[in-house]
Amino acid sequence: MEQALVAEAREAPRTADLAFDRLYRSSRDDVYAYVASLLRDAAAAEEVTAAAFERAYRKRNRFDPERGEPRAWLFGIARNAALDELRRRGRHAELTAEPADLDSLGAEEGAERSERRLAVSAALERLGPGERELIALKFFAGLENREIARVLGISESNAGTKLHRAMTKLREACDGNA
Amino acid sequence: METPENRNDQLAEDLRALRPTPHPQFAAELDKRAAAGFPRRSRPRRLSFSLPRRPSRRLLLPAGGLAVIAIVGVLVTTNESEQEPANGAAVLGLLNAESSPEDAPEAAGGAAGEPAPQIENYQGATEAAAAGNAASPLSFAGQGRPNRAVERNAELVLGADPADVADDSSKVFEAVHAHDGIVMSSSTREGEPGVAGARFVLLIPSAKLSDALAALSGVDEVRTRHEATDDITAPTVQTGELLQDSKARIDSLLAQLEATETESEREAVEGELAAERRHRARLRSQLQNLERRADYSRVLVRIETGGTHDSSGGAWGVDDALGDAGHILAIAAAIAVVSLAILGPIALIALLAWLTHRAWLRRERRRVLG
């Protein structure tokens, strides 16, 4: 009995490590995408993404599953790290973004699609930082509405409403561009 | 036909396509760091000159604890050192009680007088007065040099095995003689631990007191040692002046005696002269006594056997252990109260500062996003 308890205690850190490893593998690119959309600076995004994972790793034993999903917890950490970085640099999210990488749109894709995506990218620029963040959390990071609500500290319905408004605004901006 | 649902799906697809992707090299490096358990990186210095590193939180708590212990230690030490003069006064009282009856008024006057400074440069001004010189003892004080008569007393308690009491007593005598001291009284008792012991009342030349105490301390284990001083300058100078007055009065009476013409006048003057001479003899004795008190220090040496506590009268037992435990608990409680009094407000301030910082940080983060 005692041996089993000791073995369980020894297993506990390993369980946390394994869980974190899974979280890292499933979220690395999502966290980067979200942070990059907030900072709009690839080098800073890399730095902050690494710092966020490092911070999360150090706090992994303090994660409480009853307070939310691991991804929401991780994105909360990443969000704070990104906002702190913006605050430190005295930069605001409204600052001019790096020019969109046209190559990433894919040369093989149709001209119409490329043009449409450029319009979406330009429309995104015209959104407010809060709206851009919502869209980044939803479409870049792939979070569910309840996870977005947890990250932003608002209710799920409020998150859904805000996201709907942001999408409407984006669509209108796209139409305006067109 | 393009429906709103189709347009939404298309927009979502376009947004996903715009998703920033990490550089493969960065992703590979991050994977490596993740596999290594995210070892801490050395952050690049933001300033060209080096600033002292902020102490980590792990170090702050022990450092704070040490600071509190140091403060409490200093407070306790200061408190104990403040109590020392009281102990010294008790010793002085003990030794004064053993003085001769005629010393008592002076001792009482000295104790009630000014605080005794530890200046011992009394130069025998009163000797001049006693010898009948014209110079007043007060005239020495006017020369700008400290002329103080200071009486010093000491009490030394030594701990010894019952078998060693006799040897230790011999060593006490040797030490006294080696320093030209006088053994005023001594008593030695043999027997069981706690019963056996010895007691010595000594007079040691004040100039050799320190050496003598050092020698006596080497006789056996020192349990307690107290020293006290008492400034007896005022009564000494006053007695010297009275002695001078008395001499002048005698001279005057002698002159009157020579000038007497009748037998009755002569007898009257002789009577006054005899009374004045007795008065002068008393004053001289009083002055010599004061001088002796300044020149010789009274030392009480006790050799004890058994426990270290006088009150126990025997070996250290359960009562003593309980007493010690209570004492230690009282000290621990006092330290805890003092620590709490210091740490409580600090913790409260730290908590308020942390809450304020947190609220400010949240506000700043919200502000960053407009």
Relative helix content of chain A: over 70%
* DSSP summary, beta strand count of chain B: 5
Note the beta-strand portion of chain A: under 5%
What portion of residues of chain B is helical? 55-70%
Question: What is the overall pLDDT average of chain B?
Answer: 76
Q: Please describe the biggest sheet of chain B, giving its number of strands, its sense, and whether it closes into a barrel.
A: 5 strands, mixed
Please provide the ordered H/E string of secondary-structure elements of chain B: HHHHHHEHEEHEHHEH
**Which stretches of chain A are poorly predicted, pLDDT < 50 over at least 5 residues?**
92-97
CATH architecture of the largest domain in chain A: Orthogonal Bundle
Rounded mean pLDDT score of chain A: 81
Tell me about the largest β-sheet of chain A. Answer: none
Helix-and-strand structural type of chain A = mainly alpha
CA-CA gap between termini of chain B = 39 Å
In DSSP terms (H or I, runs of 4 or more residues), the helix count of chain A works out at 7
Form type of chain B:
elongated
- In percent, how much strand structure appears in the residues of chain B? 5-15%
Give an account of the 3D structure:
The complex is a heterodimer of chains A (178) and B (370). By secondary structure, chain A is an all-alpha fold. Chain A folds into two domains: 10-92, Rna Polymerase Sigma Factor, Chain: A; 110-178, Arc Repressor Mutant, subunit A. Chain A is 75% helix and 0% strand. Chain A is globular, with a radius of gyration of 19 Å. Residues 92-97 of chain A have low confidence and may be disordered. By secondary structure, chain B is an alpha+beta fold. Chain B has a domain at 88-308. In chain B, 60% of the residues lie in helices and 13% in strands. Chain B contains eleven helices and five strands. A five-stranded mixed beta sheet of chain B has the order 2-3-5-1-4, sandwiched between helices. In chain B, a hairpin with a 7-residue loop joins strand 2 and strand 3 (197-205). Chain B is elongated and about 160 Å long. Chain A binds chain B through residues 17, 21, 24, 28-29, 32-33, 36-37, 42, 45-46, 49-50, 53-54, 57-58, 80, 83-84, 86-87, 92-94, 100, 104-105, 116-117, 120-121, 124, 128-130, 133, 135, 139-140, 167, 170-171, 174, and chain B through 7-8, 10-12, 14-23, 26-27, 30-31, 33-34, 37-38, 40-41, 361, 364-365, 368-370.
